[in-house]
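Collaborator request, handled under Task 6.
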Amino acid sequence: QVEVVESGGGLVQPGGSLRLSCVASGNIDKIYLMGWYRQAPGKGRELVASITRGGSTNYADSVKGRFTISIDNAKNTVDLRSNTPEPQDTAVYYCNVQALNSDYDPMDYWGQGTQVTVSS
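Structure tokens returned to the collaborator:
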């Protein structure tokens, strides 16, 4: 079992600094990918960015060039940062961890979500 805990978020001004952090604990030997999703009011959950343990990244078109994802394999943490958040980035952000269980089956683990509101 893997526990996923997010931190950061809250109220951020447009063009201000946004930083979200996530740490995974538990049976963490087989994590192969970590990422961030978000869900705005009235919309479905969407991928924001993901990163493999090897450092390969994937970004949603809406955040390319504005958000940066990074991973610390030693600490099992993943960060999401932006210096150019926009009001349309307002959403609940969820950390996602993908790992193999003891049978080598792929598993999805989620954090509880953290609210990000971009507003002046």
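The cover message to the collaborator said: "Residues 87 and 118 are 5 Å apart (CA to CA). The radius of gyration is 14 Å. Please let us know whether this matches your experimental observations."
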